Amino acid sequence: MAVAAHAHAAATATGLPATDWPAAYALLHAADRRPGGRPLGPDGLVALADAAWWSGRLDEAVAARLRAHAGYVAAGDGRGAGLTAWWLSDAYHRLGRPAAAAGWLRRAHHDLDGRPDCPEQGLLAWTDTARAEEHHDPAAALAAVRRTARLAARSGSADLLALARQAEASLLLAHDRRAEAFALLDAARAAAARGELSAAVTGRLHSLLAGQALRAGDLRRASTWADDAMAWCAGQPPGPHPFRPLCRVHHVAVLELRGAWPRAEESVRLVVQEAGPDARGAVAEASYLLGEIQRRQGRTAEAERSFARAYGLGRVPQPGLGLLRLRQGRGDAALAGLRIALDCLPDPAHDRLGRARLLAALAETALALGDPETARQAVRDLEALAAPDAALLTALATTARGTLTHDPAALRRALALWRDLRVPYEAARVRARLAAAAR
């Protein structure tokens, strides 16, 4: 498939192992700039772009792909032009330049329009699925994911099939069809584990799957998949890496829940150290998670700084900031911030854990402010998110219900859930509430 071809283009062009990206970059860069020599053609420029991208040279990767696209257009190679345009769209999206990303995605459609079905069109359909989800257009997303699956079947591409499964699972999770969704994600993960996929698709899946499991409230899968991702990253060459920051952030999120706070803090430092210009979102999330750890440890000033850093990078620092304000005696500010965050949650169906945490914090804050009706509604909304196979969401809902009603039986159920999930901080908080209920 085309994705695999791009992932190995640099190795083919240089004769080096596929993972020796810095050496491949050095050879291709020298060949392109050799005095008196001929500049690289489109295929060579794609190889240079791949090597630059895997080596953390994002600007050079984009510049090489721009030249490659022009070369493919001049040669009348629509498939080469379309695939290169897709990669440019993906690069600009990762760099936080949505207008440029949208423009290159349109260009990719233009380059491939009217051509026979091919794997390159499958990549476009996969991307169209995600963009339709972002714009809350389920009909368009469903049509795009079905087209991705059809093209994967026709081409026999393991890469495209894995991406189609990941995209379809995202749609199923949004409609609470969890068993079907996780069966698809398990299949995609298995293909990556068996080494059936290109490095680019393997890395992309590793950077997506643990996050999807966490947002769905499946901590056990998230923990396993985050460990898988970090094991894969450890097998990659040292230095900048396009997928390592996001993989590490998901691992930090699991460590934070499991109470491994010193390891989580060290991993946050590594996220910031390793992140390139296309990992702004990973740094924002890592900063927020660090703030949560600091808040729970009573390191108020440090938590304030971490939340401010996350906000500056585009991450709304809730519910952590709201709970910090509540501890500071600024309950009204806490309540207002949590309500705004709930209203502005981009897509609650795709982040059930994010919504559940906001609702749990809202219930806690409202109770502290003597507003039981707001707390009751938040608990009802939280219970609507719980599911038998989402123990993390059920634990949050059961804790909130027991706190609202001072019901020792509900709190004991919540304690059992937290202990089974191995989330010590929340278990300790429930023990304190049980003691208060007993008094």
Description:
The chain is an all-alpha fold and about 450 residues long. About 80% of the residues lie in helices and about 0% in strands. The chain is built from 24 helices and no strands. Helix 22 runs antiparallel to helix 23 and helix 23 packs antiparallel against helix 24.
Task: State the main characteristics.
single chain; mainly alpha; 24 helices
Brief account:
The protein contains 24 helices and no strands. With 439 residues, the protein is mostly helical.
The topology string of helices and strands comes to HHHHHHHHHHHHHHHHHHHHHHHH
Shape, per Cα inertia axes:
elongated
Largest sheet: none
Overall residue-averaged pLDDT value: 92
What structural category do the secondary elements indicate?
mainly alpha
Q: Spans of 5+ residues with little confidence (pLDDT < 50)?
A: 1-8, 10-17
